[in-house]
Amino acid sequence: MSTPHRYAYHFNPEDLSTAARALRLVGHGKRVLELGTAAGSMTEVMQRHYGCRVVGVELDPEAAEQARPYCERLLIADLDTLDWPAAFSGERFEVVLAADVLEHLRDPWACLRAAREHLLPEGALVISVPNVTHSALLAQLLMGRFPYTDKGLLDRTHLRFFSRADLEDLLLATGFLPLVWERIEQAAVYTELAGAWWALPQPLREYLARQPDGATYQFVVKAVAGTELGALAKLRSDLAALRAERDQLAGRREAEEAEARAASAQREQAQGALRAEALARQEELLKAFQDADRSFKEYRDAYHRERERSASLELRLGQQAEALARQAEVAARLEAETGRLTEQVRHPRLLIGAAMRARLRRWFGGEPRR
Q1: Residue 353: per-residue pLDDT
Q2: How confident is the model at residue 217 (pLDDT cuts 50, 70, 90)?
Q3: Would you say the pTM of this structure is higher than 0.85?
Q4: What is the rounded CA–CA span in Å between residue 31 and residue 221?
Q5: Which residues contact 96 (CB under 8 A, 6 or more apart)?
Q6: Cα 239 versus chain centre, distance
Q7: Sign of CA dihedral 37, 40, 41, 42
Q8: What is the structure's pLDDT at 365?
C-alpha cells in the first residue's frame, strides 16, 4: 500500500469545498483533460461519482501513479515545457480542468493557450486559483511580511499570484470568456495568516474586511473559448444569470412582501392581544376597585357600629360608676352610723338621753353614779 501523497485528500462531492464546487461545474459524463492530477483526489471523484472519462497530465511521477487507476490515460509531463500538447494531437475534450494549478506555473498564459486547442467548440475550462487580495494576505503585506508556508495562500511552490481582475485578464488574453465566478470564502481569522490580521488596528481590519474580495480565499471559474459559439454561450450564460438574478430579486421581493404581510398580521395579532389584555386588566382592576370599595364600606360600617357600641358601653360604664359612687356614699354613711351605734353599745350611758338624765337627777336628787 503506497503512502498518501502530500497533496492527497478526501472530500464530499456534495459539500462546499473548492474541489466539490469545481467538479459540479465540470458536470456528469464528460470527457475531461485534467491538468495537474496530483495524487488523483479529484480524478477519483470525477471517475466514480460523476462518471467522467479522464485523461490526466502530472509532473510528479509518485503522485501520477496514485492517480493513474482513475484515468483513461495519464501523461507524466511538465506543463511549462509545452511538449505535452503533442501527446494529445487531434484530441478534443468537453472540459479542461486545472484546479490549483495555474499559480504553480511559470507561464500560465502559454498553458491555457495550449489547452484551448484541445477544447471542443462548445467545451468549457474550469479552474480554481487562490486570491492574492484576501484580507489576511494584505495584512501580512501591511506588516511588511510575505511569509511562504507549506500550504495555503502563500504556498512556497506558488510562482504566480492573481486577483480577480488579474485572473480575468489572463482568461481574456488566452482566448477564454469567463461564464461563472464562484467565491470560496474564509474569514481572515480562520486562515493560516491570522496572526498578522490580529496585529492590525481594528479600524484597518474593518476596512479590509469590507473589500469586495476581502474574504475570498479562492476563485472557481468556468470559462468558454472566445469563439462565436463561446460568445453565444457567454451571452446565454449572462442572460441566464440575469434571469436568475431577476427571479432572485422577484423571489426576494415576494419574500419581503410575504414577510411584511406576516409582520403586519403579527403586529395586528399582537395589538389585538394587547388590547384584549388591557381590557382584561381594566376589568380586573375595576373588579378589584369594586371589591375594595365594598370592603371599605363594610369596614366603615363596622367601624361606626363599633364606635356606637363603644359609646353605649362608655355610657353604661359611666352610669355604673355613678351608681357605684352613690353606693359607696351610702356605704360610707352606713359605716359611720354603724360605728356610732357600736360606740354607743360599748358605752350604755351614752344611750341615755339628756331628758332621762334630767329625770334621774330629779328622782335621785343628784347626778347618777358614773
Answers
A1: 60
A2: very high
A3: no
A4: 18
A5: 32, 33, 35, 115, 116, 118, 119, 123, 124, 125, 126
A6: 37
A7: positive
A8: 66
Residue whose entry in the numeric block shows the C-alpha cell 474541489: 19
| Domain range annotation of the chain | 18-226
Q: Residues 77, 81, 82, CA angle at the centre, nearest 5°?
A: 90
| Contact assessment for residue 215 and residue 188, using Cβ atoms and an 8 Å cutoff | yes
- The label of the residue with cell 490526466 reads 56
Contact between residue 366 and residue 359 where contact means Cβ atoms under 8 Å apart:
no
Q: In this structure, which amino acid lies at residue 33?
A: L
Alpha-carbon span 277 to 285, nearest angstrom: 12
C-alpha 50/C-alpha 35 separation (Å) is 18
Report the relative pairing of strands 93-99 and 31-35 from DSSP bridges. parallel
The C-alpha cell 456528469 sits at 28
Is the model's pLDDT at 160 over the cut of 80? yes
From the centroid of its chain, how far is CA 8?
A: 36
* Homologous superfamily of domain range 18-226: Vaccinia Virus protein VP39 (3.40.50.150)
Distance, in Å, from the CA atom of 356 to the CA atom of 368, rounded to the nearest integer, reads 11
**Phi and psi (nearest 5°) for 28?**
-95, 145
For the cut 70, the answer to whether the pLDDT of residue 326 exceeds it is: yes
- Provide the sign of the torsion angle of the four alpha carbons 129, 133, 137, 140, taken in this order: positive
